[in-house]
Amino acid sequence: MNIVEISKVLSNKTRVNILKWLKNPAENFPPHQDIDHFDDGVCVGYIQDKTGLSQSTISTYLNSMQNAKLVIPTRHGKWTYYRRNEEVIQGYVKVLENEL
């Protein structure tokens, strides 16, 4: 685990908000129209709508979060859904608690 890389990703308020929203997607996003569950995460379009930022900005943010292993992408046809990687998030918190 690269705590410096994760810390860089978390230095952006929108990326932190995305992780907060993904913690409880049913409360933070509208129901999916094409699938009836949030098991695979939230569609990029819903994340973009909630942030009010451009698609390219959100894609860049999600890519950096994916590279840091904070989120897990799943493809459904042409759509990508993102969910939190709880194992990495909890590992990051533990490293901070133990090392800092």
TrEMBL record:
Keywords, alphabetical: DNA-binding, Transcription, Transcription regulation
Name assigned to this protein: Helix-turn-helix domain-containing protein
GO terms assigned for molecular function: DNA binding; DNA-binding transcription factor activity
Coiled-coil spans in chain: none
Record carries keyword Transcription regulation: yes
Keyword Electron transport among UniProt keywords: no
Organism, scientific name: Flagellimonas ochracea
Residue ranges constituting the HTH arsR-type domain according to the UniProt record: 1-100
